[in-house]
Amino acid sequence: MNGYTGKIVRINLTNKKISTIATKDYEQWGGGHGIGSAIFWDLVKDKAISGFDPANVITIMTSPLTGTLAPAGAGRTEVQGIGVQSYPVEWFTRSNLGGRFGAMLKFAGWDGIVIEGRADNPVWIDIRDDNVQIVNAANLWGKDTWQTQEEIWREVRAGGQYEKRTNQKPAVLAIGPSGERLSRIAALIHDAGNAAGQGGFGGVWGSKNLKAVSVMGTGNIKIADPAGLMEARLWAKKHYEKDIQNPERVGKNPDDINGFGGRGPILFWKLPKQSRIQACFGCHSGCRARYGSGKGNESSCMETLVYSTFDAKRHAGIGLRTLSSMFKLFGQKIASEGIYMFMGKQTDASYTATDLLQQYGINAFELGVGLLYLRDLYKKGALGPGKSIACDLPFEKIGELEFIEKLIKMIAYREGIGNDIAEGFVRASKKWGRLDEDLATGMLQFPHWGLPNHYDPRTEVEWGYGTIMGDRDINEHDFNLLFWMPSAAKWMGDRPSVSAEEITEIFSEKMKPYEDDRSMLDFSTGNIYSRSMAKLVAWHRHYTRFWKQSILYCDFRFPDFYNPNTPGKRGLTGEGEQKFFNAVTGKNISFVDGMEIGRKIWNLDNAIWTMQGRHRNMVNFADYVYKVPSLGFNNVFPYYMPGKENGKWEYIQLDGRCIDRNKFEEWKTEFYKLEGWDTETGWPTRNTLESIGLGYVADELDKKGKLGRA
Amino acid sequence: MQQLQKIDQGKGYEEISRRGFLKVAGTVVIYIGVGGCPTFDKSSGKFIRSEDLEPNVVASKGYLLVDTKKCQGCVSCMLSCSLVHEGVENLSFSRIQVMQNPFEKYPEDITVGQCRQCISPACVEACPTGALHISKKHGNIRMIDASKCSGCRSCIAACPYEPVRLSFDYEKEHALKCDMCMNAPFWKEQGGVKGKQACVSVCPMGAIMFTGQIPIQKGNMGYEVNLRGKAWEKMGFPTD
After folding, report:
1. Is A344 within a domain?
2. What CATH number is given to the structural domain containing A105?
3. CB distance A107–B91 less than 8 Å?
4. ipTM confidence score
5. The domain containing residue A183 runs over which residues?
6. Which of A230, A269, A285, A356 is best to mutate for the B interface (most B CBs within 10 A)?
7. Contact (CB, 8 A) for B97 and A167
């Protein structure tokens, strides 16, 4: 096979049996998520079990592009299974990590790993090319994720077996103390800063007594058209990459950083001088860095935001504090907060806090948003020494390393309220008797499925809608530039670099097969409950399910709608995705072929959720989304998105808005209609399933009385 | 007369004649003792001075320079090298090797080892079949004629560098060596010293450069060069 290795390893931790699944049996699903969902459907008979049940199956899947020269398409790996983080239902969910793990797995000759059962005692999985062993992990259990990896490197490279065959270290995916203690917010960590963060897979592995998976691969990945792949890579570089040698082209705007043509790491902390950009396997434009201090290596984006604003604010000088107060006095909330972000005196605490997260293996998103909640509870007097939520964290020292180190350890080792927080902030809040109240006011900014807010569902609706119609914070930035570009410009008092008219034209041109409906990008209140908004969400689900979660193009670089490096400002989406896929696999699929497979995968996922007990009545946001007007980005900054106002495309200010509960119900009906699902229940129908070759799925749903009616 | 050239984007070119090199050879000896040098004879433990070279040993007309401080560790160079030469992706087939430690401090976190096209190539010396030869036809590149390679791995044993600058195909049983892409059957571009190199073309950072001049030695790894200029500085990264 080209691209694929042809085999997936299946490991049963209960009976220690190791077998092979032929990739050919699942090839139609593409790779990654598609294959993972399909295997899960086949292997897990009772899909309503808990994520902690030994019968839960975890899949770790690559794509045919993994380990090849496909730009921003060779380094990522998809992890799936029943998660334990979402609330109230532990949805079948996904996470995804970068780095080099998937590539190494391909070189070892495996398209993926399927893990089921539960080991009697701590184990790790040692994959060395064809050879797969389940090894006693007594000497690893208790170590943090970095120590675990370094120890495994030593063990695997000892004995000289690899001395002449490869200069590479094993690629390891590991849990830390948090996962060992079955935290619902524990992550899987690889190298210094790659993480499968969402879904609580760290805790799921902990429940299986699985400490780590290590891969050493020295083999080949076959390429159907090697010259074509090389040519495609250089084509993308020539036309779509930003020339890193040209100082005129390097900038700090969102469109300089995001997208295929972006450059520079995405960091919310100060970039120390002594540093380099660092990239995942095969990526043309790294989004993180390594540092002269060694602190903060490979972490990016939200991981860097968890503590940096607290740190900067804490260590701001008297001058900055005075300035901030003055801004506040004159009602300049943006400036009052903003100056801390941009001019605060951030220390090493920011980097070390993130490193601790990686080492202990805790989801950065959950902690980052949850920390705000803890601080607000403390300010309110509800939490602290001797308070109703008893906790001896030194809040007066928030912003210092001491505070965050103590908090992270408490969570990892389940000490004090750390034991509650290890269950996730929503379950913790429930335990503290505050859940309904705090979700009604929005003090607990966890608007969907018990998961933290990423982009406000009240303003950037495709994000919230996609999340609530699915299983998790989508974390798919495909349309996020429509917020960042105008908003960042306006916060600075600048004009957005592209007009709303032009940006919506550029985007919608590429949104096949819905390419002639520009109203899909109208975020004005009059349009957010419409069928065209349902089409936007559907397009988003289908594109991400196939091209990004199955073929594994990186969310940070794909899709490439708008690309400032090209004369027409159009990016390579619609042409690039299939170009690399076809060169590697020798197939000849179109962009829309991929979209169709994405729709099929999305249907299968909904079938799994239906088997887990899903019903449209559960599909609702937290109360505050309906009741409390959005305060904007970070609850401070105005939120702009394109929309039509008086017939003209504008960037409309959307903070101050909530979601209308009734209209949202109507929108759900529109969405179900569009997807061909039963509008009463949200379940997939036989007609729809059979039309996409999933008749056998319809049969199963029917047996359980969960088949949607046409 | 070969001319040694120090290449530093910030400081411009500085030409040193061979005599000039020998003048400072005394001070350079300690430096060489720490790392390696193309004129170091591993078997005898002696240094071979340039004027002791065989008159018919000719220097390569092409070298790869890598700015390891600019490298982002994406290994696109390795992937392209393997792809254009062997038609498959395999890190062990790459003639340029990037090694990383994600927990290490910059700049020690990344090292790059490429063939140095040694002036006195130990690998050519060691090859019993003449498969590894200096190709006078192709700008004196030290390259392998695969049809003559017996897979004995003497070249690999002879290479004085750590890691060894040759790779080996265990299935086809022959050695693999950087040939400046002279023989890159899976690339439509013309390679060699007068053409393009896949790693140079692909490198997204512009961290690899081809040069026709013999570069200055620097330790055990590859030839070092500073390719970071104004754009790099503007992005907030160091240019030293």
Report:
1. no
2. 3.60.9.10
3. yes
4. 0.96
5. 7-216
6. A230
7. yes
